[in-house]
Amino acid sequence: MATSQAGQPRGMWQRQADWTWNLIRRIHLGARRPANWAQLFQFGVVGAVGYVVNLGVFTVLTLALDVGHIRAAVLAFCVAVSNNFLWNRVWTFRESAEGGHTGFQATRFFAVSLGGLAVNLAVLALLVDVFGAPDIPSQAVAIAVAVPVNFIGNKLWTFAWT
After folding, report:
1. pTM metric for this prediction
2. Does some domain include residue 145?
3. pLDDT of residue 114
4. Residue 53 belongs to what domain range?
5. Which of 79, 81, 92, 127 could bond to 88 as cystine, CB 3.0-4.6 Å?
6. What is the C-alpha separation between 51 and 101, in angstroms, rounded?
C-alpha cells in the first residue's frame, strides 16, 4: 500500500479530502439556491429572538433571583437553545424537520450550537484579548461569524433530509 510522507496510508488522506471536497461542493451548490438564503434569513431572525431570550433570562436570574453570572449564563444559554430549536424546527427547517425524530434533532442542534458557541468564544477572545477591541462590538462580530457556522451545521446535519 502506498503511504504519504508522514507514513499514513494514502487512503486515509484521500477519504478526508473527499469528505472535505464534498462538504465544500454542497455549500457552494446550496449558496446558489434562493430558498437557502431565505432559510438563512429565518435562521437569523430566530437567532436574534434567541439572543433576546438569552439576555432576558440572564437578567431575571442575576437581578431578580440573585443567581451567579456563570450559572445564569449557562441556564440562559439552555433556555435560548431550546427556544431556537423549537422555532427552527417549526419555521426555518419545517419541511426537512417533519420526517425527523425530535429528540435526535434536538441532540444534533445542541451539538451544533455548542460548536457555534466555541466559534463565537474563539473570535471574541481573539478580538478582545489579542487585539484589545471593545467587548460589545467584538461580541457582535463574533456572533456574525458564528451564525453561518450554525446555519450550515443545522442545514447539513441537524435538519438534513433523511
Report:
1. 0.64
2. yes
3. 92
4. 36-158
5. 92
6. 26
